[in-house]
Specification:
It comes from Zhongshania marina. The protein is 65% helix and 10% strand. The chain has helices at 59-92, 96-140, 147-202, and strands at residues 2-4, 15-19, 25-28, 40-43, 49-53. The protein starts with a strand and ends in a 5-residue tail after the last helix.
Length: 207
């Protein structure tokens, strides 16, 4: 049902079309403040639309819209990261075997670093034992342990803690690096499969 109120229509004047509270469509020379949230059209006398003002979203709709935009942004960011990852893989490797070789090399490098750290740790602990023995001998003789010796022991113990932390970190890195290379292998294999499928698809057409 259409209800027209207000002044007679003229060719020079724009009018407003908006829904009323009872479901009818109203055309008037202005929009009541209480009708603005429901949205309206600015129209000419022939009914053609000049401008449409959409209904205002409710708080729940605004939250849903914000969440939708957030999800879309996160998806776009993830897609961009995947494209960058794919480009990097195709640039660095020519086969899955290349990735496996790189993995073995990287893991061996970490293992060498761990070995060096463990060797350093052993040396530090031996020095601590030597200094502790020296301090104990002085105490048995009733002599004071030099402050410099105590400071050296404290410094060595701190170094032990730091070196052990580095060893633990490197050990965890082994699993992380191995997993990353496995992910690279799986992704590269997927990319290769896609390329082969495209080649098979277009091959008959090129004959």
């Amino acid at each position: 049902m259409l209800m027209i109120v207000g002044a007679p229509l003229s060719a020079e004047t724009l009018y407003y079309r908006y829904p009323s509270t009872n479901g009818t469509v109203v055309i008037d020379s202005s929009v009541p403040p209480d009708a603005v949230p429901r949205g309206y059209d600015v129209i000419r006398i022939d009914g053609s639309v000049v401008k449409t003002v959409p209904p205002r979203l409710s708080e729940a709709e605004l939250k849903a819209r914000a969440l939708e935009l957030e999800v879309a942004a996160a998806r776009a960011e993830a897609d961009a990261k995947t494209r960058k990852w794919d480009e990097s893989l195709l640039l660095r490797y020519s086969s899955v075997q290349d990735i496996e070789v790189a993995k073995v090399r990287a893991l061996n490098d970490i293992k060498v670093r761990i070995s060096i750290l463990k060797s350093n740790l052993s040396t530090i602990k031996q020095q601590i034992l030597k200094n502790q023995s020296e301090a104990a001998e002085l105490e048995r003789r009733g002599q004071d342990v030099p402050e410099a010796l105590m400071e050296t022991l404290a410094s060595l113990r701190r170094e032990v803690t730091t070196t052990e932390q580095h060893i633990n970190s490197r050990t965890l890195e082994l699993d992380s690096v191995a997993n990353n290379y496995e992910r690279d292998k799986a992704r590269f294999a997927h990319l290769q499969e896609q390329v082969e499928k495209r080649m098979q698809y277009y091959a008959p057409r090129n004959k």
